[in-house]
Amino acid sequence: MRKEGVMDRKTVGIVIFDEIEVLDFCGPFEVFSVTLLHEEKRREEPSPFEVVLIAKHGGTITTTGGIRVAVDYSFSDCPTSHWHKRLALLFPLTFSLLRP
Fold first, then answer.
1. Concatenated DSSP letters for 61-79?
2. What gap in Å lies between CA 58 and CA 73, rounded to an integer?
């Protein structure tokens, strides 16, 4: 917390790509986005994590099942300067990466 009542949220960037399995990024997205510090204040406080989706070229990606997902940032326009010391990157490993 920076000031009383103002949460210093950490940013979790999930790197996604074409042909990713939906559960490989949606599961972690859900876990971080609904995490709470105080369950009794569920309706009053946001998650301590800001979750963003990052892809190599930005825009949209298409999952293995054909779902199109809009990403928040590309590799080149990620605002890493203001995320300094508050960013964790998650790189989902999916079966599609292992295909020849």
1. EE-TT--EEE-SEETTT--
2. 5
**pTM for the full predicted model:** 0.78
Q: What is the pLDDT of residues 51-100, one digit of tens each?
A: 999 999 989 999 999 999 999 999 888 876 666 566 677 777 665 555 55
Domain 10-93 CATH (choose: 1.20.1440.20, 3.40.50.880, 3.40.50.1820, 3.40.140.10) = 3.40.50.880
Q: How many residues are there in the chain? A: 100
Strands 60-62 and 68-70: antiparallel
Side-chain-side CA neighbours of residue 63 (13 Å):
15
